[in-house]
Amino acid sequence: MAHQYTGKFLLVSILCSVGYTSTGQSSAYSTDTAYVGNSLRAGEAIESSDAKKALGYYQKAYTVARRVNYARGYFEAVRLLAFALNNVGRSDEAKSIAQQALQQANTDTSKRYKMISHGALAITAARQGDLAEAIRQYAHMAEYVRALGRRDNEAVIYNNMAAIYQRQDLLDQAIAYNQKALAIRRTLPNNDRDIASSLFNIGAVYGVRNNYRQEANYTLQALRLLKPERDVDMVIRVYNNLGYVYRSTNKYDSSFFYLNKALVLSHKMGASSEEIRVLSNLAANHLDKKNANAARPFLVRARAIMDTLKPGLSEQQSWLAQMVDLSVLSGDYKSAYQWLEQYTNNKDSLANLSIREQLETYDQTMRRAEAREKIAEKQAQIARLEADQRRQTMWLWLAGMAVLALTAGGGLGWLYYRQRQKTAAAALLAAQQEQELTAIKSELAGQQKERTRISKEMHDDLGASMTAIGLLSEVAKTRVDALAVPEVGKISEISAAMVTSMNEIIWSLNTRNDSLNGLIAYIRAYAREFIDNTPLTLKIDIQESPDEVIIRGVDRRNMFLTVKEALNNVVKHAQAIEVTLRMRPQTNPTQGGTFHIDICDNGRGFDPASLAHIHRNGLTNMSLRMQESGGTCNIESTQAGTCVLVRFPY
Amino acid sequence: MNTPIIVAIVEDKDDIRQSLAILVNGADGFVCKQTYVNAEDALDDLTRYPVDVVLMDIDLPGMNGIECVRLLKPRHPDMQFMMCTIYDEEEKVFEALKAGANSFILKRSSPARLLDAIRELHDGGSPMSSSIARKVVGSFFNVPAPAEAERNTELDVLTPREREILGRLSKGYSHKEVADELFVSPTTVRKHIFNIYEKLQVHTKVAAVNKYLGRV
Q1: Which residues form a coiled coil (chain A) (predicted)?
Q2: Chain A within 8 Å of B37 (Cβ-Cβ)?
Q3: How far is CA A12 from CA A408, A416, A605, in A?
Q4: Which chain A residues are closer than 8 Å to B129 by Cβ?
Q5: Which of A202, A413, A486, B113 is the most buried if burial means most Cβ atoms within 10 Å?
Q6: Residues A489 and A612 placed together within one structural domain of the fold
Q7: How much is the ipTM here?
Q8: Which residues 232-261 of A are in CB contact (within 8 Å) with B?
Q9: Average pLDDT of span B24-44
């Protein structure tokens, strides 16, 4: 009993010491830092729903951090506070806070603090309309961001700068900076969405210049990178812009095509502001075609959405513009005038507003990226702590168990411990197995993806080039002098052969072709085409499988290549005048079956043993191929001819 | 000399588009003055200035070739579309046939064969591969119909001769084999196939309308 008591004491004392350490951390100083951190987080959590309240949190954090000289908290607070102050129109305060922060940062070595300070000054300057200053500040910020190695954030800054240039009508610079952002994004992995957004922006700038050809070009490039399920928000905007572009170039069919797609998507996703724009664009198309009756329902539908939620200025504008046109078209000039007046009143505030919206989106993107980084850091910390705790708990258990075991003289305690260990081991084993399974699964998925990628790339790049070579060499044949014709002919022949074998590889990679009857038809069609180009006669005798049987790509390929080789041998060596291709699936009574392919000719036959080495190789290859798929390939040869017998159990 | 066949080419890859145009223009009896790098331009221009035969690539930036055919065919039912693919992309070719194309060809086909195919399509003939034939059969058979009697009428859309041809093609018979077995010329076989494609288009539309009206 004494031992057990000691054991308990031991537990308590360790717990105490743990407890003590944790109390030790929450000194007066750390209470303040925790307070700063908590306030900032609380502010961030509600910023989008209650900006004023968030501002209050940031201000408290800012004051406390400054009082206790908590540098990290101070600069975080500056970052958030400047942003929030600007949002509620208190840019003067934001400016003085940011300037103080910059002074402070200049006394420190931290690049991050300088970056934050310049960033706060840049946002403020942009908000105050001092665009040249904003550009200067962003350029400083970009320097430090680059030094910190945050390429993604650097790209966002260039986006910001581009947007400001656009606002100043310096469109060349706007394009150049969007291109800079694009160049960076192209070097980062898994970045299709951001690349697409840069391409989209560049297109939009060209649109401002009425260069619709380039706008369409860049927007279509963006579209190619977007995934409909992941980037539905951007896809809607891309479709809508394409609708606009094609309307501007009088291609109404294409315009309607994209706008209808945008309408379906925006409606489905509940993206109301986009839906209003799409509806307005659709109405505009009909109005261009002087069809007021077709336009009206779209505008009514847009109005209905606008009544239920407060739309942004730009949505109102796109709607108002169509109302003007509609009234003019219906000869109602009084209403037209009223709508036009509303439109002009809104117009001035619009240019600034849309750019501001764009800037805010970028800033938020940057902040989200930073927040993600912080969260990942926090999670790693938590994981470490948990691991420590688990280790501690385990040691406690072990100690406790050991003591118990000693006191009770083994017995139950020991058994219990063993049992726990076993369960733990079993659980561990199960977890390991699961992990392995997941690993295998993900590897398989990866392989499948890789297969698709390779065949797609072969198809798109290699295939297109090979086809062009083939076509051009045919054209060249008629143009070069007679001496070079054989060489050019050879080029054309080789490129055609390459495309054919690529075609066969892609056929075998595609899982949609995995059926036995499909394979039978494919082999039959191949044999027919191949033999018809020779003096031989082909006889075909085929039974199809009554059931749907699935044959894997690798097996299909092995069987096809074996038949191909066999037919090739007949043509080259057999000196036959006739060849018969027999295919027949033989079903087992229980399940599965064997697929028979016989290729028989009436040629001179041969003695396998006396065959030249090089020909034996071809035969061995056929046999090896079928073995790889779990089948066989046998050759029976007499003076009356040769039969290649291919068997594949399924 | 008869009036030449007027051809248009829609293809985004410059090399291929230009080579095809050189080929077509260099041959007797063909003219190609309209080439397009994307479906949007083609849609607009071909609506206003139709041609006899359009060589249409399937994979185009933005709107693809199939969607373009779907919009153009109803406006100019006499304009024939030949889908050009690099490989046997059965799935896409089949979609295109349903959308209104009447022919397809692999870009690797020899120039002589390409020109023959254009002429043949112009004369109302089409080719069909075994896997496309399998899909066409499936499409006519697999329409979910409420009653057995109605399903039979679906199949009756095809004439017995067309069904014979389709059945053989789906088993991998060549056009010539089909022609020999049925004692007709390969040209006649191709004309039957052309009609099967036309019926497939109508059939696809009817199926879509039925689905829309909740009849399926």
Answers
A1: 352-388
A2: no
A3: 20, 22, 93
A4: 525
A5: A202
A6: no
A7: 0.70
A8: 242, 246, 250-251, 253-254, 257-258
A9: 92
